[in-house]
Write a structure and sequence with these properties.
single chain; mainly beta; 7-stranded antiparallel beta sheet; 3-stranded antiparallel beta sheet
């Protein structure tokens, strides 16, 4: 018959995650209830988060899921409103709200970090921080000698052949945690956030003799996104170029926003790095309503 081979180490001690919240809040109305204010400061602790913590290869099995993580969200919520009359017939007011929090990993089962990829979880950092290379600009023709070799003293890239117009990465670390003159995966660090940790909204309203108007805005902030593949990289897989990508490097456009054109499916420019990292924060008009009440 079929033989089943265990691949993951068993764990009979799994349990549900637990949560704990500590907070202090203020709720007030002033000026005959025309002005309202609500504020809350909180610390939310999530413990026993399920993680696959690294185990020694000598065990011969993949790491089991364990209750090993602890994460704190520390933040505050604010809300301010105003509601008043001018004369007997005109009523107006507004409501504003804002929320923000910091996400911090406190425990990873005794480890400093989990094995990183394009995202990283590290004690003291936030969950799933974007993990990539810091950018120092673009290589210029003056960075190379007459034979096309990189000038002495510049860090040596290990991701592939480069030339003028390619992205220049920062040498921030090495195997021993200090710059070592080489550009490789050791130079990756947290360069962005995958968490939306800010929200806001604003509502304005007015009424006059049966006519009412309301305007609403909303917004979010804190989250970054990596544009990759056909979405972010010009001529990826011999594809297309988008209008926002046309500021690319050429010998006559050396202070461009983006590297030289390169139609291929892989290239050192297409590592996870700050060039392709974009802030997704926005504020937009959500709704406008104009109404009339029949007498």
């Amino acid at each position: 018959g079929d033989v089943y081979k265990r691949q993951v180490l068993a764990n009979s001690s799994l349990r549900w995650e637990t949560g704990e919240t500590q907070n202090i809040a203020v709720d007030a109305k002033l000026f005959k209830s025309k002005l309202s204010f609500t504020g809350e400061y909180y610390v939310r602790k999530t413990k026993d988060i399920l993680l696959s913590v690294t185990i020694p290869p000598s065990v011969g099995l993949n790491a089991p899921t364990q209750n090993a993580g602890e994460v704190w969200n520390t933040g505050y919520d604010l809300s301010v409103g105003w509601n008043d009359f001018i004369g007997d017939n005109f009523r107006y007011g507004f409501n504003f709200n804002y929320s923000t929090f910091d996400n911090e990993i406190k425990e990873l089962g005794g480890l400093d970090k989990l094995p990183p990829g394009n995202l990283i979880n590290r004690v003291g950092g936030e969950i799933n921080a974007i993990h990539g290379l810091i950018v120092e600009g673009l290589y210029q023709e003056s960075d190379f000698d007459a034979d096309g070799n990189l000038n002495a003293g510049l860090p040596t890239p290990s991701f592939g052949a480069i030339q003028a117009g390619d992205i220049k990465y920062a040498d921030i670390s090495g195997p021993d945690g200090v710059p070592d003159g080489e550009l490789n995966n050791d130079d990756r660090t947290s360069i962005g956030s995958s968490i939306t940790n800010e929200t806001w909204g604003f509502d304005l309203f007015a009424e006059y003799k049966g006519i009412d108007l309301s305007v609403s805005f909303i917004g979010e902030g804190g989250r970054d996104v990596m544009l990759q593949g056909d979405v972010g990289w010009t001529f990826f897989n011999a594809g297309k170029i988008q209008e926002w990508q046309t500021d690319y490097w050429t010998p006559s456009n050396t202070d461009s926003a983006y590297p030289r054109l390169h139609p291929a499916s892989s290239h050192p420019n297409w590592r996870v790095n700050e060039t392709w990292l974009f802030d997704t924060s926005y504020t937009r008009l959500r709704n406008i309503t104009l109404g009339y009440k029949l007498p």
